[in-house]
Amino acid sequence: MSDHAQPFVLAGVMGWPVAHSRSPLIHSHWIAQYGLRGAYVPLAVQATQLEQALRALPVLGFAGCNLTIPHKVQALSILDHIDPIAQRIGAVNTVVVQADGSLRGTNTDAFGYIESLREAQPHWVADQGPAVVLGAGGASRAVLCALMDAGVPIIRLCNRDAGKAQALAQEFGAVVQTLPWSERHAALQGAQLLVNTTSLGMDGQDALDIRLDALPASAVVSDIVYVPRLTPLLAAAQARGNPIAEGLGMLLHQARPAFAAWFGPLPAISTNLLHTVHASL
Ligand code: ATR
């Protein structure tokens, strides 16, 4: 096919604010890597105008877009079709314009989490033992879905606000067992995975306060915080010999199926891309 016959594909990320998003960097890298004709742009859209902006996508010839703060939950009530995974996570991070101009919402965060965990620690086996998940916000919902779908038998969920953890356990079923926030240290007994989904440990925030003594040395410690790349939790885990998985992986891997839905190929994460994104943080 000549260059002119190849369609120009448009995608972007809608958010408010949106300037901080690393998605344009990631997708533009892949567009260039595959030599595609296309662009991925930041779309600054306020919450009150989300519906108009989404309905404009097919009109403007967009293949779709990512959604970020504050649009991920509101989009559920606007889009024409919602994939089961987005329904379960309770949020949409990817919109795909269908051939008939209707809008499909999906969520690639659970895929992004499990892929990044498996890439960082290929020896981790889901059904080898319980996982401990700290936090019960939006990111936690995606991580819980990912771990349940991977076959983790028991998930011990600890959150500062116990009511939010209990509501998630109610929704997700018996695999998810809640423990009080004060029990997070003891909850690590026999666990094969610890995941921090809280914002603790992020630059400018307090470190996550947790004693790792009870955690088996073989357990993988994973953080979804990616600034800094090596959070105090990951540094402490590494110092005692636990395998770790960094948060940057989830950010990169969630972008892959979205790119595939709009542009075709399912891209890999090259070290070049990893360094480019890391340098931008
Ligand atoms: P996200 O979408 O990134 O998950 P969120 O929905 O705001 O963001 O969730 C933030 C998570 O970090 C919550 O689990 C929150 O605990 P609460 O539900 O009790 O608010 C947790 N978190 C934030 N600051 C915390 C702190 N100082 N101590 C313990 N947990 C904290």
Written account of the structure:
There is one protein chain. By secondary structure, this protein is of the alpha/beta class. The chain folds into two domains: 9-108 and 255-280, Rossmann fold (3-Layer(aba) Sandwich), CATH 3.40.50; 124-242, NAD(P)-binding Rossmann-like Domain (Rossmann fold, 3-Layer(aba) Sandwich), CATH 3.40.50.720. It has helices at residues 23-33, 50-60, 84-89, 109-120, 138-150, 162-172, 232-239, 248-263, 271-280, and strands spanning 9-15, 38-44, 62-67, 81-82, 94-97, 103-106, 131-134, 155-159, 176-180, 193-196, 220-223, 244-245. The strands form two sheets. It has a six-stranded mixed sheet, sandwiched between helices. It has a six-stranded parallel sheet with strand order 9-8-7-10-11-12, with helices on both faces. Helix 4 crosses helix 8. It starts with 8 loop residues before the first strand and ends with a helix. The mean pLDDT is 97.
Give the oligomer, counting copies of the same chain as homo and different chains as hetero: single chain
Specify the biggest β-sheet.
6 strands, mixed
Overall body shape: globular
Q: Given this structure, which CATH class of the largest domain is correct?
A: Alpha Beta
Secondary-structure content class: alpha/beta
The largest sheet has its strands arranged as 2-1-3-5-6-4
What fold name stands as the CATH topology of the largest domain? Answer: Rossmann fold
Q: Give the termini distance in whole angstroms.
A: 38 Å
* Proportion of residues in β-strands: 15-25%
Helix content: 25-40%
Residue runs with pLDDT of under 50 for 5 or more positions: none
Please tell me the CATH architecture of the largest domain by its name: 3-Layer(aba) Sandwich
- Rg result: 19 Å
Mean pLDDT: 97
